Amino acid sequence: MSQNKKKIHFAWWLLLGIVLMVGMMKGGINSAGGLFLTSVTKDLGIGMGSLSLYFSISSIVTMLFLPIAGKLMAKYDIRVVLIAGTILQAGSFAMFGLMNSVWGWYLLCIPMSIGAVFVCQMAGPVLINNWFKKHNGLAMGIMAASGGLFGAILQPMAGNLIASEGWRYTYIFLGVLGMIIVIPTVILTIRMAPQQKGLQPLGMDEVKKDDNTASHHAAPKGVTATIARKSSAFYFLIIFFFLITSIGSFGQYVAPYAVSLGYDIAFGGTAMGGWMIGSLIGSLTFGFLTDKIGARNTAIFAMLLGLVPVVMLITAGDHKSIFSIAIGIYGFVVASIATLGPLLTTALFGNKEYPQIYSTAVMGLAIAGIVALPAYGFIYQLTGSYTSIIYAVGVMLILNVIAIASAFKGKKKLEEAGHWN
């Protein structure tokens, strides 16, 4: 199918839509939850651990709904699914501003999490794999960077709004803003497959020329979901998701951590803005590096780099400038969740049954939320300090290096057994 080379391929417009959707809903809503913890607990007299349990409930809902989400996305119009997801996620977040009891968070986080499964987790990687045969790593990196871009703007703004207008107003403002931005974006730019626009995926013609086999791409290569789920590579990938998400979950406590060191909530919002800038740069960097040196080497580099902010926070975290720099580097490393998670899945198992494999593997992400998020809150509630949590993060980074290396040993076994075809 011939294409006018001067015309921008619709894949790039789709990517712009994904950037606006994921950026607003992840960087402006999901990642903002931690900014409210200190203010809400003080205002309503709720313990930090008790309130943070809603993160755990969210993760349980996410884990249970992920397999269903993949089926719904395949069965129904993707735009209808994403609009419904946006209303559930952003609308529930806005309604937090009306709550007077911790039970409000426990109940509303259920529809919020269901919506976020579609909007923040499943849709982006699946759409990019459908539309990009070329620049796949770059597209994944740009998608992941969108959370950092929007977060760098919205997190400091939210911190200042909480300080000046209160947490109730800020919840409502962010939720309504999310719906205003995302719903028109989905209608205009999102399509499930290139065939719906009479197109081929971006780079398909070039890939065919390079391989000289059109049939090679008619049937994507990789491992079936049934085989993948029985492999050691799959279980180590789940461990990677669990550990990196546990590491990244500390982002919800950056603002409370800053307050515990004597800073105000506005500075906590600014620090989270630094985290988001680091995440933005990290997402682009990891996408570029994956295209150049592969997902395995990029992931190991990211985990080793993560030890730098750990050392900085342990040794000099009470210095404002050191704290800010460390949080920025931390955000850079945590960008690997959104970027390297999907790319590692593709590198290990291919594209043959990617949605089924990825939707199961990311349960490690959900399990981490169930365990790590409330655990951090209760550890602080019991000890009055975040220091032990920082040490735990360092240990998890080292364990993840081992998990990544072991996953690729598992891939080699799949290839030797003839399952990778």
Concise account of the structure shown:
Its main location: membrane. It is built from 20 helices and no strands. It is mostly helical and 421 residues long.
The CATH architecture: Up-down Bundle
Rg, Å, rounded: 21 Å
Give the terminus-to-terminus CA distance: 27 Å
- How is the CATH topology named? Growth Hormone, Chain: A
Helix content bin: over 70%
Main beta sheet: none
Any low-confidence stretches, pLDDT <50, length ≥5?
212-218
What does the overall shape look like? globular
CATH C-level class? Mainly Alpha
Total of helices: 20
Mean pLDDT: 84
Number of strands: 0
Summed up, the domain count is: 1
CATH superfamily: MFS general substrate transporter like domains
Strand fraction equals under 5%
Structural class: mainly alpha
What can you tell me about this protein's structure?
This protein has one domain (10-193, 223-414): MFS general substrate transporter like domains (Growth Hormone, Chain: A, Up-down Bundle), CATH 1.20.1250. Helix 4 (78-95) packs antiparallel against helix 5 (102-131). The chain is mainly α. Residues 212-218 have low confidence and may be disordered. The chain has helices spanning 10-27, 37-44, 48-75, 78-95, 102-131, 136-165, 167-189, 204-211, 214-218, 225-228, 232-249, 254-260, 265-293, 295-305, 307-316, 320-334, 336-349, 354-361, 363-383, 387-416. The protein is globular. The protein is built from 20 helices and no strands.
